[in-house]
Automatic annotation (TrEMBL):
NCBIfam families: murB (TIGR00179), PRK00046.1 (NF000755). PANTHER family: UDP-N-ACETYLENOLPYRUVOYLGLUCOSAMINE REDUCTASE. It is found in: Cytoplasm. Keywords: Cell cycle, Cell division, Cell shape, Cell wall biogenesis/degradation, Cytoplasm, FAD, Flavoprotein, NADP, Oxidoreductase, Peptidoglycan synthesis. Cell wall formation. It catalyses: UDP-N-acetyl-alpha-D-muramate + NADP(+) = UDP-N-acetyl-3-O-(1-carboxyvinyl)-alpha-D-glucosamine + NADPH + H(+). This is UDP-N-acetylenolpyruvoylglucosamine reductase. The active site is at R163, S235 (proton donor), E332. Its main location: cytoplasm.
């Protein structure tokens, strides 16, 4: 079913009051192809929408928004050590993590409470607390938008890197993901080496899979606003990876700077730390603001912010960081 002049406020976590000219949420690949062969819709600008947690709508979308709503989960195969699972693109990501933990499957528990849908997870190569999704993805399935032919990419074909994939660069706007296949462990060891995780796990009791998930949830909830209550898209900026010489120079001026070595040539500096050093934490510009507890998160403070206001705030923050540190920070959100 295709709906005209469709309200997108329930489908973007900033809660911007914007509309799409046309909207459809097909529940399987056949329905996707059906709407994509509609002569009227083929002429419209197209945007593929997932959970709406990583998108900033500047204004109404003059075109067609397609939101895959494929909800199936199936076990492809398994052995004593591992299980291979295919999950539909429309499944809420955290619900999928909860499902895997309830089943006793290891591998994605540290990615708990990340907003969005399964279909978006490989696009961003989502990651948190020492885990990246690229390490458990075996295949990504979907449809090429130009030919409407199916594809099935192996992990190596996805060209994963830090918060990046082939779907975000070379194939951006050229595919629609229908399902993602994962390999999860029936046995495993929880990752607690990220700051604060071990302490929270042991505060909850034993280092079990369920306690690991709850620890991550507790940590994220203590730092990040609930998008159901305060409009936000989680981390607005990527953490920049810079040359070691640049990081070393910053460490001389800021001995307590949280700098993480990537390899012998590069290091990662948290964008949130730099934004905070620029004095933006808790500051507002109109109806848009920087969260008081986490400077990496921009929020719709009053519930009345527009995408243009949020973007203006982001640009000012980028300028401040560039001026103070000589480092360019890039948006993690998709500006539409």
């Amino acid at each position: 079913m295709v709906i005209q002049h469709y309200a997108l406020k329930p489908h973007n976590t900033f809660h911007f009051n914007v509309y799409a000219d046309y909207f459809s949420a097909p529940k399987n690949s056949d329905e996707i192809i059906q709407v994509l062969t509609n002569p009227l819709l083929r002429k419209q600008p197209l945007f593929i929408l997932g959970g709406g947690s990583n998108v900033l709508f500047k204004s109404d979308f003059k075109g067609f928004i397609l939101k895959p709503d494929i909800q199936s989960i199936r076990i492809i195969k398994q052995n004593e050590q591992s299980v291979w699972v295919e999950a539909g693109a429309g499944i809420d990501w955290d619900s999928f993590v909860a499902w895997s933990v309830d089943k006793g499957y290891y591998g994605i528990e540290n990615l708990s409470l990340i907003p969005g849908n399964v279909g978006a997870s490989p696009v961003q190569n989502i990651g948190a607390y020492g885990t990246e999704i690229m390490n458990v993805i075996t295949r990504v399935n979907g449809i090429f938008l130009d030919t409407l032919e199916p594809f099935s990419f192996t992990n190596s074909a996805c060209d994963f890197s830090y918060r990046n994939s082939i779907f975000k660069n070379k194939l951006k706007g050229k595919t629609i993901i229908t399902s993602v296949e994962f390999v999860l462990g029936k046995q495993g060891k929880i990752k607690t080496d990220y700051a604060g995780v071990k302490e929270e796990v042991f505060r909850l009791g034993k280092p079990t899979l369920k306690n690991a998930r709850q620890a991550i949830i507790n940590i994220r909830e203590s730092k990040l606003p609930d998008p159901e209550l305060v409009g936000n898209a989680g981390s607005f900026f990527k953490n920049p990876v810079v040359k070691s010489a640049v990081a070393n120079a910053i460490a001389l001026d800021y001995p307590d700077a949280p700098i993480y070595k990537v390899d012998d040539q590069f290091a990662k500096i948290p964008a949130g730390w730099m934004i905070e050093q620029c004095g933006w934490k808790g500051k507002s510009m109109g109806n848009a603001a920087v969260h008081k507890n986490q400077a990496l998160v921009l929020i719709n403070k009053t519930g009345k912010a527009t995408g243009e206001e949020m973007l203006a705030l982001a640009l000012e923050i980028e300028r401040s960081v560039k001026l103070k540190f000589g480092i360019e920070i890039n948006k993690e959100v998709n500006v539409v």
